[in-house]
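Hi there,

I know you've been waiting on this one. I reran it after we fixed the sequence typo, so this is the corrected version. Both the input and the resulting structure follow.
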Amino acid sequence: MKVFRYLRNLVVFVVVMILAMFIYDGYHSFQGTNRESKAHTIVEKQIEQSEDTLSRTDRIIRLFTFRDKVQIALNQRVSKEHWVKGDVIPEYTKNALIAIEDKRYYKHGAIDVLGIIRALYTKKRIMSRKVEEAILASEMEHYYSKEEILTMYLNTVYYGHNYYGIYEAAHGYFGTSPSRLTLGQSALLAALPNAPSYLDPYTNYEGAKARQKLVLEQMVDQGMITQAEADYAYEQDLELVEE
């Protein structure tokens, strides 16, 4: 009986969410679709356009083919050759991102679910569909572990200069592989997704360094590194590749 009750409640929940999505989507369609694009690059514009053309039926189908759609979204952002496995990425690189984005990541997570969905799809249209986003977030938590989601995020987030993912960012900014990133370099990369254009280390070095320092301070506060390690990382030359 408990299993039957659970399945019944699950079906009711899905039906209600789908109906809510239809109603909410219809409302926004009525309000108009000429919203400001927040795409940084041509890749993001293409993803936005693809998202805009999805029908309500397509969106519902996506809910039931979630893993396949996530893989397609990953491939849109980063090529397989540039995908970096989680165990290759230094622990302090992961911690730098968690420290500045969501210090309670492993307890509840925010960057994990909503961040990865926004990174994989678009910040324009999907964000107007809160009901759909909530369902996708729930599915993300169901199908993937925290480590898998964090790895996805690091591999797909935009770091500026048309660099998607930690592979392109590490090679593009520092001429090195992700596994060889220093603590200072990792802190800078963790700082960039917040405002990749404004914090461009080539055009706003002081701003980028200030945000890097904030990341390091957060890591110290959360017991991830010592104050001495933070001070050394901040003073260390970033070894930026010359443009």
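Quick highlight: Residues 27-35, 109-114, 122-129 have pLDDT under 50 and may be disordered.

Best,
R. S.
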